[in-house]
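User: Could you check the structure of this?
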Amino acid sequence: MKVSTEKIENSQMVLEVEAEPEEVARSLEEAYRRLVGRAEVPGFRRGKAPRAMLERYIGREALLEEALEHLVPDLLNQAIAEQGIEAIAQPEVEITQVDPVSFKATVPVRPTVELGHYRELSIATEPVAVAEEEVNKVIEQLRYQHAPWEPVERPIKLDDLVTIDVAGSAEGKPLLDRKDLQFQVLQGLPFPVTGFAEKLEGLEKGQDSEFSISLPADYGASELAGKECLFKVRVGEIKEKKLPELDDEFAKSIGQGFETLDALTDSVMSNLRLMSQERARRRYEEKVIDAVVELSSVEFPPILVEQEIDRLIAAQERKLGESRLSLEDYLRSRKKSKEELREEFRPVASRQVTGSLVLAKVAEVEELAVTDEEIEEEVVAMVQGEGERGEELRKLFQSAAARQSLERVLVTRKTVKRLVEIASGEAEYISGEDNATSGEAKATSGEAESTSSGESGVV
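Assistant: Sure, the predicted structure tokens are below.
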């Protein structure tokens, strides 16, 4: 076997491999022995046909193809080992000729990350403030949520709750037939079709009405897309929200222990401030990470982006599954192919791979690690209050793979925290210490976890 190597961009090595004649001959003989036991050669019992007869029966090309299926991977693995190459994913192989047998393999190797002087970063934190208008808006939302519906004797207005009989048909095909339908007249509501709610404005109790609306171009039944749908409506009861007075009685009606309106207002203010602080924290973390990435030079093989796209699509499928939708249904409704979806995810995947590799390198330089006790504490926090599902989670994290994955998440969390300390001026270092580092980084795309938690309610 003759091997030549060349390092190319994006952390890849190209191997040119030429097989020795005796290696090819040995592989052809092994291929013959595998095939002769499976082939039915006329005039011979299975496994007894001479090689020349087998070649004549199946063709030399088929024999060579069988031989190369085993020879090429064997020679590639041998060449990678001999050259001391650390492949991080399956190489791409192209057979360049068969006489002599030669092939080219593009091997993805460990990414390289050169960190800039990230310890010199200084990024101002943004002030957090809650405007009085925000508090008033939440109070009004609570007021509306706790307002009862009361019948009114007037024409329908937007936001009313009405009881209607409705029938809809297009091209003679019935699409909707409901009696005593409770329907809130909200502007832009897509049910049963956009524009329906607005057609109800001005109608009175007991009134019959007919009107037509064009079905949207992406309507589920494609043969009816764009067609006119005729609706027949009879209006029953009309109700509106009767907003309660903003007083202590209203605060008590919320049911969370508020005795006065001031207490409710203070609670709303406090929770809005916490939510604002949380959003500011997440924005600051993202700003710091972006700044560290901007200072760094990162090179990685394209396969890492493809793997991250696979992960993002799998996450999309799981999310759709929760709504009982398939990825195929989702793509069909948006008139996209899976390849178009992959291209849509590509910029996001590339950013996440780059950020993950930079954070992994920072963790290495900062010598950040987590202990078994910290991992166990995180598992306990995750399963707390989860009941039976909590026990399933605990069993899951008994496996080495799951604990290693959690370990990477916790290291990432520590790394982000460390960078925030540096950028905000809270970190302390020995004077004159240099942090400009370079070298290989672990290929861990998709491991960087968002350290933010979900927003809590405002009351």
